[in-house]
Design a protein that fits this description.
The protein is an alpha/beta fold. It is built from 17 helices and eleven strands. Helix 2 crosses helix 17, helix 6 crosses helix 7 and helix 9 packs antiparallel against helix 16.
Length: 398
Amino acid sequence: MLTGMPGRDAGLFCALATLYPTSMPIDFLYTNIGRGHPHYLDGLRQSLAADHVGRVTDVFSVSGGAGRAAWELARYLYYRGGRGGATARWYNRLRRTTDYNNPSLAQRVMADDLKRWCRKSAAPLAVAHPALVGMLAADSKLLYVHGELVVPDEALVCGARWVAVPTEAAAQHFIEIGYERDQVRVHGLGIEPELIPHAVSSYNHRLDRLRRFEENGLSANEPISVAIFSSGAEPAPHLDLIGRLLKSTERTSGAVRALVFAAEGGRLERLCQQRSFPCVSFASRNDLNQATAGQWETFDLLIAPPHERVNWALGLGLPMVPLTPTFGSFAPLNLDLIRRAGVAVDGDTRIETIVDEFPSYVEHLLKRQQLSQAAQRGWSKLPIDGFTRLAALIASDL
């Protein structure tokens, strides 16, 4: 049973909303807090024809006065809440108790300028954050792009005309709160369009390499390549684990090649610079996607929080060691999902017990053939071209 979910009237509103028939371009409204929700709008926007894209902005550009201050506070809490400690506990408790179907006074203040901006156009509006669905449901023709594979309670918000989800399992959650079946469209995994052209060849090469590692062991002549990412909040517990892991790889004489992707000016980049760890810095989401695509063919193992990159483990055959502890409502569900799917290779192992001897742990995984098995479990099970499929649905239906 869902908790804190809309009552009968809100569920009825979901059922009465119908897909808005139009050939107008689609407007995009970003929160631009963190990477996950904005990533799903990026992928859709990239996959639409240029004449299907209308106004593109974010909540900070549209808002002023008290509304802008409230959004700035929300961004501050996101980054502070993702860094552990008392603030994180308070922030996570706040997220668990927030009901976007019944916006608070603060949320109504945050929505005022957004509503005025929305009324300037009759075009459909694509959003990815559930808070925006709750704030704008009565004023906009919303396309709710729920790109995540999991659906925590906070994501279940009524009032959108149309909901896009990656799987039938996700769709069912929205149908249960009152959306009609034809309002909920299933499109597949939301994977960066830059990675799709490399998907087949990189998977085949990765599987061949993993099998050679399993047969011959690790060697500096052909090192195993580990890609490391943090979340936008760069939580202190994760940075500590990454630093310890990178230090352990220095003792392998090049048999384990770790490469960190870090935001320019962030704490992870500073960590890598101070300790001379290999690092690719990026200034924007587009920069990150381009840098990732440039290295993608070499990746053998992923280390990252269980956020939007679980799509790589579940769809592109890239085994994953998830960074924990988890923060927010999506990550714990994603962690459970990838472990049940067998694409997370940590099992019940606590990551803090393995990072100081990470190369030995990798050798242990190879001896048990866990990496090649995880790669195979994460390949060809789900459509990987979800953004292209979603763009085609929109082009035909709108």
